[in-house]
Amino acid sequence: MNASTITFAFHESPVGELFLAADDDALRIIEFPQNRHQVKRLPDWVEGDNAVLQETRRQLD
Fold this sequence. Notes:
The chain starts with 6 loop residues before the first strand and ends with a helix. With about 60 residues, the protein is an alpha+beta fold. The longest helix has 10 residues, at about 50-60. The protein has one domain (about 5-60). It has a four-stranded mixed beta sheet with strand order 3-2-1-4, with helices on one face. It has one helix at about 50-60; strands at about 5-15, 15-20, 25-30, 45. It contains one helix and four strands; from the N terminus they run ββββα. It is about 15% helix and about 35% strand.
């Protein structure tokens, strides 16, 4: 199994701010950042943008 880089970003959506995380294949996490059961970000995750996050934001807006 190849490890894919997880890219994450915050997005201001109509339902409030969301935390989004995706690799190059799919959205892996979507959650409200205030959630007390947040997924812990790993050190190798990168804050940024990729095609999956762009499409996710487009659909959320």
